[in-house]
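Renewal narrative, Specific Aim 1. Our central claim is that a sequence can be written position by position from structural information alone. The example that follows is taken directly from our test logs and has not been curated for this report. It begins with the structure tokens describing the chain, in the order in which they were read.
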């Protein structure tokens, strides 16, 4: 099943980067080392896509801020993974 957001954006099939939504919320997003921030590129696409405001950024001096997932807010919906240009977001069991 796809989320309402995915439907409205015309994304009707899950990709390898974005596993299907787990409606039970038994998994959490995890941001890996391929995130653009580690290459010092400013990107906030995942946070913009997260309706739970579960992705926060930690500022670094003279470098792009690093994103992290707040595990108490993440529902495992996968909206962040759909928009990540680097395929940096995977999921782990909660
Ligand atoms: S969308 Fe992907 S590349 Fe961009 S900040 Fe989030 S995890 Fe990093
Ligand atoms: S899986 Fe959903 S709730 Fe969790 S960080 Fe990504 S967009 Fe936010």
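The sequence written for that structure reads:
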């Amino acid at each position: 099943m796809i989320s309402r957001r995915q439907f409205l954006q015309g994304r009707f099939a899950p990709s390898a980067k974005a596993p299907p939504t787990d409606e039970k919320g038994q998994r959490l997003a995890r941001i890996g080392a391929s995130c653009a921030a580690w290459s010092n590129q400013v990107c906030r696409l995942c946070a913009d896509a997260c309706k739970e405001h579960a992705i926060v950024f930690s500022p670094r001096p003279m470098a792009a801020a690093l994103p992290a997932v707040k595990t108490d807010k993440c529902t495992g919906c996968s909206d962040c993974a759909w928009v990540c240009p680097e395929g940096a977001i995977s999921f782990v069991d909660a």
